[in-house]
Amino acid sequence: MEIPSSLLSLSLVLLFSFALATSADVHENFVQCLASHSQNATSISQVIYTPNNSSYTSVLDFSIRNLRFLTPETPKPLVIITPSHESHIQVAIICARNHGLQIRIRSGGHDYEGLSYVSHVPFFILDLINLRSVSVDVESRTAWVQAGATNGELYYSIAEKSKTLAFPAGVCLTIGLGGHISGGGFGMILRKFGLAADNVIDARIIDVNGGILDRESMGEDLFWAIRGGAGGSFGVVIAWKIKLVPVPSIVTVFNVSRTLEQNATMLLHRWQYIADKIDNDLVIITDITRVNSSEEGNKTVQVSFISLFLGRVDELYPLMQKNFPELGLVKEDCREMSWIESTLYTAGFSSGTSLDVLLDRTPDPRISFKFKLDYVKGPISEIGLEGIWKRLNEEEGAAARILTIPYGGKMSEIPESETPFPHRAGNIYHIAYGVILEEGVEFSNRYIDWTRRLYSYLAPYVSKSPREAYANYRDLDLGQNNDKGNTSYAQASIWGIKYFKNNFKRLVHVKTVVDPSNFFRHEQSIPTV
User: Fold this and answer.
1) Segments of the chain scoring below 70 in pLDDT
2) For residue 466, cis peptide bond before it (omega within 30 degrees of 0)
3) CA 243 → CA 138, 196, 199, 201, distances in Å?
4) pLDDT tens digits along 303-339
5) pTM of the predicted structure, to 2 decimals
6) Both ends of the chain: CA-CA distance in Å?
7) Taking CA 388 as the corner, what is the angle to CA 387 and CA 393, rounded to the nearest 5 degrees?
8) Which of 433, 473, 489, 499 is catalytic?
């Protein structure tokens, strides 16, 4: 029997109205719960934002770093909480459990798939932007840093106290340290000191019961899991105690670019044979883009060799002449500066930029992007590299960017099972690639399709069984959990083994012990069994 269109329309209206009412009830009950369970109702009310609040949209949008997830169609949180005290987080967890709201934890907003601020089930955002204090102890070479602090804020605080201490975190200055360290965290001194997570010596985390735990009280299994097992699975990390590392008062940097007409293919091929084997004080990364050729109307590929050396140019130059003379580096290409100045240099700031930019949490320009990452265990042939160039010459390649980061050194010395991050010995480098568009340019599916085509092309040249991936370069193409209900180990292992290899099984065990109800969950959170 055919249903009258008027009756069908009425049914849809009633169904939609019921959904809105249910959603409103959940968020009102949740907010009331927060006030009733808080020791200071006035205090917590000042950090709660609902859609009726005039600041809701600006608070939500401020830490969205991928404009793909800032559209009218993107699901929005019922509530945003920006805790200014640990007790606010404890109450939020208790009330969310009582009222069936999913939690999304945001420290800097750089999750590559937007999972720190987007969900397809009713949710709230716990935005840690107000928890970003940094306390540096030069004498013990340690620091406590809250999870909402950024790389830039940490680097600035270290430099205020010492010119010869550093921390091996990332190049991007606006990344929040809560998520960055949770997934591993690599930067320009990884070959000397490993990952950010390798240099964590204590932490404070709020668990599913609202308890505040440090390393001693959480136990070594959970402490192991949160240093590389990725965020959003085990609790809310509120602070890290990190080990600062020694750097010389003067370091040396260079950025030398070569196009295909200047033998870039040969140079990148040669780079693969030395990048992970040279002195641990030296890292040379590459940044690959399509650019205009010197021949009018033509395009070419440019490979930029970007380096940080923990020493002076007079030490660096003979190292380069011995290991990579083909690049043709001359001393005039090099610049000496302090380590803190090098963090601005590698982030792309011009000479003379004030260190105060390290405290700016707003990236410029705002972008939309889709990225993937692979691990390379054997050099890609020149023919293989030319196949990449062919894809860069496609229409979407104009917005593409490819980055290679060499491993070796300290990265090869740390066992695969030392932390959940398993990508250690045997990897020459990782290759990250994707498409970046500035604000105002529509990010259509053809850009995602281009990234997926390059992923398919690279299959013969990268790691296999599993084809490894990096949890902080989150990629839902690899697989995801069920929106509702539990996800089986077999289903989750499709993506989990790629990120964590044999460490995935231990992560699942820890998750099952510390969060058996699977309260902390998202599309690629560690499942329970």
Assistant:
1) 1-24
2) yes
3) 10, 9, 5, 7
4) 999 999 999 999 999 999 999 999 999 999 999 999 9
5) 0.94
6) 46
7) 95
8) 473
Distance CA 162, CA 136 (A): 9
**Distance of alpha carbon 399 from alpha carbon 151, whole angstroms:** 26
Question: What 3-state DSSP class applies to 335?
Answer: strand
pLDDT at 2: 42
Q: Cβ(151)–Cβ(240) under 8 Å?
A: no
Cβ contacts of 316 within 8 Å, gap of 6 or more = 252, 282, 307, 309, 334
Q: How many C-alpha atoms does 526 have within 13 Å on its Cβ side? A: 32
Report in angstroms the alpha-carbon separations of 59 from 53, 83, 86: 10, 13, 20
Residues 129, 64 contacting (CB under 8 angstroms): no
Which helix (H) or strand (E) element contains residue 92? helix 86-99
Closest to 234 (Cα-Cα) out of 2, 515, 470: 515
Q: Give residues with Cβ within 8 angstroms of 391, minimum separation 6.
A: 397, 400, 450, 453, 454, 457
Return the pLDDT at 23. Answer: 61
pLDDT at 263: 98
Q: Is 447 a catalytic residue?
A: no
β-partners of residue 368 are 437
Question: Is residue 402 a contact partner of residue 369, using CB atoms and an 8 Å limit?
Answer: no
524 Cβ neighbours under 8 A, 6+ residues apart? 113, 115, 230, 471, 474, 476, 478, 479, 480, 481, 495, 496, 499
pLDDT tens sequence across 413-464: 999 999 999 999 999 999 999 999 999 899 999 999 999 999 999 999 999 9
125, amino acid identity: I
For 24-76, what is each residue's pLDDT tens digit? 678 889 999 999 988 877 789 999 999 999 999 999 999 999 999 999 999 99
